[in-house]
Each structure stands twice: as structure tokens, then as C-alpha cells.
Amino acid sequence: MKKFLMTLALSATAFAAFAAQPTTDDARSLVEQQAKIVLTNLNANQAHYQSDPAAFSALIRNEVLPYMDFELMSQVVLGRHWREANAQQKTDFTAAFRDLLVRVYSRGWTNYAGTPVEEAVKVLSATPVDKYQRTDTRIQVRDKNGKQAIVVFSLRFKNGQWKIYDVSFENVSILSSYRNSFDSEINQGGLDKLIAKIKTMKGDEKL
Known about the structure:
Number of strands: 5
Largest sheet: 5 strands, antiparallel
Number of helices: 10
CATH topology: Nuclear Transport Factor 2, Chain: A
Strand order of the largest sheet: 1-2-3-4-5
Strand content: 15-25%
Order of helices and strands: HHHHHHHHEEEEEHH
Low-confidence stretches: none
Shape: globular
Radius of gyration: 17 Å
Helix content: 40-55%
CATH class: Alpha Beta
CATH superfamily: Tgt2/MlaC
Structural class: alpha+beta
Distance between the termini: 12 Å
């Protein structure tokens, strides 16, 4: 279930809404519409994606990743280490972290393949847009075994569109979880060693 947090956060971004002013309706639509699009696509092509996982990864890269705020996510997940990193390290970390999230996304949909779209995702509420042009969208997700969970997506309106920058499950932020483990890794071996390790992570490691 935890891995679904990031996967759904990633999927939601591909329907990013462009508007002159940010509204909670746009944010809600982004989460709901793209989650349904990805599930529909997955359900219709399960056999193909099982035999060719790279095809699903390609879908993610082309339709989802352009709408993620990876720079902000990288800054948040590294914390003080981002400020201490040089330009090349920032570039390398952002690329490695982005690729890790692709792997997390690809694996995370396993429990939802075959689940009717109407049963898998239900948008519950969204907070008012704050002065920093942010909002949280709260949804209920149900896997193929009927297990339910509440997930909260944090979005920021940037350059005329909503972008996902964090997701929380049972009040636990995905970025905060990675931040704690990454901080420990950097303190022990340095940022370059962490970057090398992230490149080897399969995406199903426990946070």
C-alpha cells in the first residue's frame, strides 16, 4: 500500500491543469482524472505491461514525469544537504531520484491492476489554496483485496499549472520518509555514495 502513495502521486500529475489562477477544483480534477486514466490504461493492457515492463515505464516518462516538481522534491528530500551540494551533485541527485520514483511507480500499481476504476479511487476533499498557492487533495484508495486507505496529495501551483510535490499516507510524508533515510546515508558515506545507491534501488525497498 505504501508504494501506491508515490505511484498515484506520479500518475496524478500527467493531467496537470493550466489556468490563470489556481483553484481547488483544478487540483481535485488533476488527481482524480489522471488516476483514472492510468488505471484504465493499465487494466486494458495488463498482459502487455507484464511482458514488457519497459513499455509502462515509457508511458510514465512521457506522460507523467514532465509534470512533477522534481527540483522542489529534491530540495525537500535532501534538506540541508541540498544547500551544501554542488551544481553537478544537484543535477545527478535529481536525475537519480526521478528514476527511482519511476521504478516505485511501476511496481506500485501491481495491487490495483484489475480493480474497477470507480472502486479504486475516490476524491474526498481539498483544502483552500493558501497564500503560497498550495493545496492538499484528500482521496480514498482501494486495492484489489478491498483494503482502503486515505492518501493526501500536496500540490503547488507553479508557472500556470498544478504540480505534485509530496504525498502522505496515514499522516506520514513520503518525502519525509526518504529524507530520514537519505540523511543517514549521507552522514555515513556522503552524497555521491547515496546517489550511487539510489541508482541500484529497485523501488520496493521499505522506507
